[in-house]
């Protein structure tokens, strides 16, 4: 997975952190959680606030 795979990342995060409200996560923590996902392989320097927002919104959608 790469930073642009927001839907795949959201699915993984929703399974791994089912009890967490995505809106309560700081972006610094979200970035660490994404980088810790199995199968994630991308440069941390390619991450931005916009990408993290997209992941966060996709995670919210995944919860519904």
Observed structural traits:
single chain; 64 residues; Arc Repressor Mutant, subunit A; 3 helices
Describe this structure in words.
This protein has about 60 residues and is mostly helical. The protein has a single domain (about 5-64), classed as Orthogonal Bundle (Arc Repressor Mutant, subunit A), CATH 1.10.10. It is about 55% helix and about 0% strand. It contains 3 helices and no strands. The chain is globular, with a radius of gyration of 10 Å.
In short:
This protein is mainly α and 64 residues long.
Describe the protein's topology.
Elements: H1 6-16, H2 27-36, H3 49-63
What's the Cα radius of gyration? 10 Å
Shape: globular
What is the level 1 CATH name?
Mainly Alpha
- The CATH superfamily is IscX-like
Count of separate DSSP helical elements: 3
Task: Bin the helical content.
Answer: 55-70%
Q: How many discrete domains?
A: 1
Low-confidence stretches: none
The assigned CATH architecture is Orthogonal Bundle
- What number is the mean pLDDT? 96
Q: How many E strands?
A: 0
CATH topology: Arc Repressor Mutant, subunit A
- Write down the secondary-structure element order: HHH
**Helical/strand content category:** mainly alpha
Kindly, what is the distance between the CA atoms of the first and last residues, rounded to a whole number of angstroms? Answer: 23 Å
Share of residues in strands: under 5%
Largest sheet: none
